[in-house]
Amino acid sequence: MKKFDSYTDDLLRRPEIQRLARRRDHHFRQNRLEHSLATARVAFWMARFLRADARICARAALLHDWFFEDRAEHHNRFGANVRHSIIAAANAEGLGEVGAVVEAIRTHMWIYVRGKPRTREAWIVWMADNITWLTDGFKSFGKYLRRKARLFIYGQSWREVTHAS
Ligand SMILES: [Fe+2]
Ligand SMILES: [Fe+2]
To answer: Ligand 2 center to residue 154 CA distance, Å?
Structure first.
């Protein structure tokens, strides 16, 4: 088993983590599990490059957006859910994750909320999330454009005509 997989496999097998795939509105049109896994991969490689603890980084990044609450009172004026880092940190703690993982999750929304990352691993998770956030944005925009182009060319009835889902 590859190193990354050995660090994350037990988490990915959990139904409560797999449930993240049902949220498809993360960063506009991204699936939240896909975002979390991409963040974990980026954090893992950054940790290896920067000689940080790759296991801590991969696990914290995979769990950093483990939340389902999306209430309006959790949103700041930019539309970012500012409570979710606390919720995800509590969820990870409940699972028995070590303090370094919980701490990196708790500080990943720094700038929007108080509490700078304080460890190398927490900074890596913060950076990996921001890199992935940007690529999610491009991907979502691409999806949006493809859908618009399809509707423009085929019109609203293209689904019925092609029986596409
Ligand atoms: Fe987040
Ligand atoms: Fe994130």
So the answer is: 35
